Amino acid sequence: MSIRPIHHTFGPHVSRKYALHADRLLLSPWTWNNTKHTNELRNELEKQFSASAHLFGSGREALLALLRSLRFEQGSEIIIQGYTCVALPNAIHTAGYTPVYADIDLQTLNMDPNAIQGRISSRTRAIICQHTFGIPADTERLSHLCAQHNIVLIEDCAHMLPDAQGPGTVGKYGEYVLLSFGRDKAISGVLGGAILSRNDGTSALLRQEESNAHTLAIHTVFRALLYPALYHKGRMTYGLFGIGKILLFLAGKLRLLLPVLSASEKQGDMPPHVHKMPPPCAALVRAELSRLGEINAHRRALTQYYARYADTQRWKILPHLTKLPLQKFPLFVQHADDIRAALKKYNIYLDDSWTGAVVCPRTVHQESTNYLSGSCPHAERVAREILTLPTHPTMTQKQADSLLHHLTSLLA
Would the N or C end of the chain have less CB density within 10 A of its end CB? Predict the structure, then answer.
């Protein structure tokens, strides 16, 4: 058994270089309010997306700021897909709107345009389409649908940032593009999110939201910058007599680790205020953005490797994945929870919080999200059967070989 865990969530972007960068920022607190990095990140995003960029403390806060800036009437409906993160319905509710769920296409895990037709009503004002795990949604078709009904298209690109190799459709058709720079997203700054706006009127309101946003508490920025060091050291010794496991357990007990979701957010409650993106987190994002081609090439290589191996084993996977820089690689099995549990004895942890519920993670109070059980049967099926394999920047080829070896034995 390897000392280092195979995982989705143990600092997936945190290489030695990333950790050292975070350490330098951590030890330079006098620079934490220097907006140089946020301004430069803003410029780079505006150049890449040909849109006005607005930075916030997280992706969910960025979405909340956008929804408020759109100035829809209270009770307006926003269509999202089943099989999504609780951050979306929480932001929609906090903005005063109502989430409406459309089922997914089993070939893409994305919103099914045919399912949307039955969800559009006189109160529908926007559609948020996500590129699940980096699989491109049919945004061209969705944009035509939105134009037909005079509703707004928002692209959620948290799982996918296109590079020079594509996919060229991602981030192209949405009037607004949502980015998240959380710990396991396409690129990571530990904290942070952004809205790219192609509407001048909304951009002016977003600038006001950003200007009025609160500054994150110093101890929150401290914990964000400490996260890479803790997880890098913890990961290196996780399987060595449990040293890394103890380190991370103690860090959690001492509240040195930032929770991905608060207890109240899992109950459907999101604070109404938003925060500015911390400049040191913007610095981490800029470093990741500068090597986006390298990160995506790594993801493409692992995606191709998994897909070819899965074909030899006749595992159930999605079509047309091999050219994509997937955020994680999905396959579908019976008793997925049992498989994940069995892999833990080999220091393999494949619970990525995108299992067991239509609104993820499974610890979310589903009723508070406005999801009606049975309304998205495809999404419910995927949540039961999905097993995802890591493609993140610190996942090695050797680890992929080990994972497939153990998985083959369990699925035989």
Answer: C
Instruction: In whole angstroms, give the CA distance from residue 251 to residue 329.
Output: 30
Sequence-ordered strand ranges (E) for 57-147: 77-81, 84-85, 98-102, 124-130
Tokens of 218: 């110093």
- Half-sphere CA count of 150, side-chain side, radius 13 A: 3
The 10s digit of each residue's pLDDT in 202-247 is 999 999 999 999 999 999 999 999 999 999 999 999 988 889 999 9
The structure's pTM equals: 0.96
Fold for the domain defined by 30-212: Aspartate Aminotransferase; domain 2 (3.40.640)
Reported as a single tens digit per residue, the pLDDT across 274-290 is 999 999 999 999 999 99
Residue 196, H or E segment: strand 193-197
Boundaries of CATH 3.40.640.10 in the chain?
30-212
Residue-wise DSSP of 383-397:
HHHEEEEE-STT--H
Per-residue DSSP letter, 401? H
User: Cα(246)–Cα(253) distance, rounded to whole angstroms?
Assistant: 10
The CATH-assigned architecture of domain 292-411 is Alpha-Beta Complex (3.90)
Rounded Cα gap, residues 384 and 355, in angstroms: 7
Judge contact between 329 and 389, C-beta under 8 A.
yes
